[in-house]
């Protein structure tokens, strides 16, 4: 079976043996399989279309020669002794070129898209474990950006489209895992989203709430700081009022939860022991006063907004 991996660095294998195609041949193959809506059953691509997409910076004569050479190299690289001509790359009598989707093959980008479409079908609140599994499989297929290192216009367009599907996949999983109480998995998905798009403030809020639900108040407060820093650095703005209010709630909840019990009265002993206990109590009091001041400051900012 021909297996084509287009996420991250391109990897193409036939019966588990790597095929070393030249970059131009990889590029032509990727175009043919990604734009599969024009496959051979629908007459394929005209040569002038392929030239305009892949060799637009060449003059016509040179571009046609490049296409012919690349097509020959691609066929040589894909065909084997057991495969007759046109097994994978088909050419119509009128000259159109297409990938043969009736051949025995597997393509990660196509499998990824199919899983995401099935996994996100229907309302979010009705999403089930089967759909979650489909989305997890899609998540594993997305090993990196499509055709890493290739900045052709058509690649950038397709890369952005699949990137949005990846974010949709992660967002669905994030909310599903929170709903079923799998907080660590929900947090993992949220962090993955921010790894792609750190400016999604609603995801920062989701992580803050999920950290609180899982009993990790310190990480919830830390997530607000991460959100605040990235918005200041990238957009020179403050977090939304909703995010600031959530932070204030976290701080207000954390104060009583973290308040130490009243230090016990010193047992009969040395004066030094009693003084040490008094010093510890004063330090605890100072810390609590600082926390209270932080909460007051956030609330004051909310009132001024």
Using brief descriptors, characterize the structure shown.
single chain; 305 residues; alpha+beta; Arc Repressor Mutant, subunit A; 4-stranded mixed beta sheet; 11 helices
Give the structure's gist in a few sentences.
Helices cover 62% and strands 6% of the residues.
Question: Can you describe this structure?
Answer:
- By secondary structure, the chain is an alpha+beta fold.
- The protein has three domains: 102 residues, Arc Repressor Mutant, subunit A, CATH 1.10.10; 92 residues, no CATH class; 89 residues.
- It is 62% helix and 6% strand.
- The chain contains eleven helices and six strands.
- Strands 3-2-1-6 form a four-stranded mixed β-sheet. A two-stranded antiparallel ribbon has the order 4-5.
- A hairpin with a 2-residue loop joins strand 2 and strand 3.
- The N and C termini lie far apart (61 Å).
- 26% of the residues are buried.
- About 5% of the residues have low confidence.
What is the fold's blueprint, element by element?
Blueprint: E1 2-5, E2 11-14, E3 17-18, H1 23-34, H2 47-54, H3 60-78, E4 89-91, E5 97-99, E6 105-107, H4 108-119, H5 129-141, H6 153-179, H7 183-196, H8 201-213, H9 217-234, H10 241-258, H11 271-304
Parallel strand pairs: 1-6
Antiparallel strand pairs: 1-2, 2-3, 4-5
Helix pairs in contact: 1-3, 2-3, 4-5, 4-6, 5-6, 6-7, 7-8, 8-9, 8-10, 9-10, 10-11
């Amino acid at each position: 079976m021909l297996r084509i991996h287009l996420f991250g660095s391109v990897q193409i294998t036939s019966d588990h043996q790597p095929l070393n195609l030249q970059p131009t041949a990889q590029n032509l193959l990727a175009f043919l399989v990604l734009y599969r809506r024009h496959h051979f059953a629908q007459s394929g691509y005209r040569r002038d279309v392929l030239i305009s997409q892949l060799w637009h910076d060449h003059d016509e004569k040179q571009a046609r020669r490049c296409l012919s050479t690349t097509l020959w190299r691609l066929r040589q690289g894909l065909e084997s002794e057991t495969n007759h001509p046109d097994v994978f790359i088909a050419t119509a009598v009128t000259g159109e070129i297409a990938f043969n989707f009736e051949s025995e093959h597997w393509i990660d980008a196509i499998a990824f898209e199919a899983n995401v479409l099935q996994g996100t079908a229907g309302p979010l609140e009705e999403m089930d474990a089967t759909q979650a599994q489909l989305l997890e499989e899609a998540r594993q297929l997305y090993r990196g950006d499509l055709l890493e290192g290739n900045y052709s216009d058509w690649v950038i367009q397709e890369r952005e489209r699949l990137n949005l599907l990846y974010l949709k996949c992660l967002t669905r999983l994030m909310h599903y895992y929170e709903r079923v109480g799998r907080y660590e998995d929900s947090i993992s998905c949220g962090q993955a989203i921010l790894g792609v798009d750190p400016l999604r403030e609603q995801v920062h809020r989701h992580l803050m709430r999920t950290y609180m639900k899982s009993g990790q108040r310190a990480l919830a407060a830390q997530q607000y700081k991460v959100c605040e820093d990235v918005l200041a650095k990238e957009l020179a703005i403050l977090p939304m009022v909703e995010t600031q209010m959530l932070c204030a709630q976290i701080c207000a909840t954390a104060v009583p939860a973290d308040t130490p019990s009243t230090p016990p009265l010193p047992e009969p002993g040395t004066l030094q022991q009693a003084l040490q206990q008094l010093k510890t109590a004063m330090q605890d009091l100072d810390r609590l006063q600082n926390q209270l001041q932080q909460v007051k400051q956030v609330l004051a900012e909310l009132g001024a907004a």
